[in-house]
């Protein structure tokens, strides 16, 4: 066989090529962000509404008491 002395180089080259193609994969995607916490956060609108309700109730109570 004429190519017998090149056979080990061809096999080694094929193995190196296959190994490079196999390991040339992109990295995995980053993990997704964590889910938001459960429940509804208390924002400024709810606090202002509760404060207005307290002031209204306080004024209503004392206006009825003085009348």
Task: Give a structural overview.
The chain has 2 helices and no strands. The mean pLDDT is 83. The protein has helices at 7-23, 44-66. Helix content is 60%, strand content 0%. It has 67 residues and is mainly α. The chain is rod-shaped, with a radius of gyration of 38 Å. The longest helix is centred in the last third of the chain and has 23 residues, at 44-66. The protein starts with 6 loop residues before the first helix and ends with a helix.
Helix content: 55-70%
Determine Rg (CA atoms, Å).
38 Å
Order of helices and strands: HH
Largest sheet: none
Number of distinct beta strands: 0
- Low-pLDDT parts are none
Shape category = rod-shaped
How far apart are the termini?
A: 120 Å
Strand content: under 5%
SS-derived structural category: mainly alpha
Q: Number of DSSP helices?
A: 2
What is the secondary structure topology, with strand pairs?
Elements: H1 7-23, H2 44-66
Quick take:
This protein is an all-alpha fold.
Features:
single chain, 67 residues, rod-shaped
